[in-house]
Amino acid sequence: MLFLNYWHLFVTGAWVTIWTSTVAFAIGLVLGTLFALARRSRFRVLRLIGTVYVEILRNTPALVQIFIAYFGFASLGFRLPALLAGITALGVNAGAYLAEIIRAGIASVPPGQLEAARTLGLSPVQTFFSVVLPQATRTVFPPVVNQYVETILGSSLLSAISVQELTAEARIVNSITYETLAIFAFAMIFYLILTNLVSFAAAMFSRSFFKPRIATSYKFSIRGSRQLRTGGGRA
Amino acid sequence: MSDWQHIWDARGLLLSGLLATLALVAGSIMTSTILGFVVGFLRYRRIPVVNVVLRVYLEIFRGTPLLVQLLFIYFGAAYLRLDWVTVFIASLVGMTLFNGAYISEIFRGGFEAVPTGQREAATTLGLSRFHITKDVVFPQTLPVVLPPLFSQYLQLIKNTSLASVISYFDIVRQGQAIIDQGANSFDVYLVVAIMFFVISYPLSLLARALEKRIVTRRERVA
Q1: Given CB 3.0 to 4.6 Å as the disulfide criterion, which of A193, B95, B100, B119 pairs with B35?
Q2: Can you give the pTM of this predicted structure?
């Protein structure tokens, strides 16, 4: 149990894992939204750019993408710090998956909703923000959270370009005490706690935020009576 | 100029890496599908104690990074002085346990998608439990299971690149060997990425076509 003397390395590693994957995920969300919109655009060029981005990033390994961002660009003369290259590569990779998720979410809004919005005289921008977006958010939320978990797990690849996150710290401690099984099991417990916390928080959030809010109750009065009654109830 | 020449001259290395990657892909697709099928079926049957054990397995292998699992298995085997665990075996075991966990959920979903009425009808017709499972449940799970199974295989192909970290001589590792000989790393990794793309992209198109076909067939039935 010598490795427990180095517990602070695990904690700093876990912290690096948390913030790198969170920043990468944020980059991915922005890119994902932009490219999802590009793929639904009226302009062929934008659609093409979106498709190329998604297909290339989704059909090559994340590890190779990280190597290109760090070693590859360095050999071209753009020497990025490992942290910057790693986070960017991870974010660009997550963006491709998120673009597909968000695109599917937007497509899942029934066309009748768009027709209704048009009938009500909403502008395309209004339609997007007050009709499409609220409904798409609901369907997209679980797979997006899933992608966040994937990004946390994927951030372990940054250890291959010497970013000092959880996996890298575990390997360092392993090279000091050689208690291999216990050390990697310990690191795995950290990851398990992290991923479960995210899933739990997401479940809590969606339970309170996405509860059915369709009001079906209505007020009415019977002729000859002043009393206002309530009919219907929560859906 | 001379750099591409360098990579071309070292094509033997990349080719042997490609073979190693394909060997790992083929091997782990087979083993993880078998494991996933068995685990998925056992979870579907909800056998009391077994179910808890399997949930712990799923929780661990789906909640931790594949890279850490590979390091655990490879260095762990060295720690226990299991000399017969080569890099290939360690990678295969890691890939199998990791992908088997995901595939088992796909199969379980497939089994549960078969309406209970089908089982009841088969029981009424006097089929044995074995025949119900083999001739009534399994054929109906196939269209549900195939599309997600294919996308899991696509993930698996890309995930084999992680075996290079524990020094399995796949495409990525052989690419690094060429870089060590002095080639430009951007060009080499670009070639490596293209090789993965060439394997993965046609399969993703195939998976999409398959999915579309199954969905339209289901709509025709409905």
Answers
A1: B100
A2: 0.89
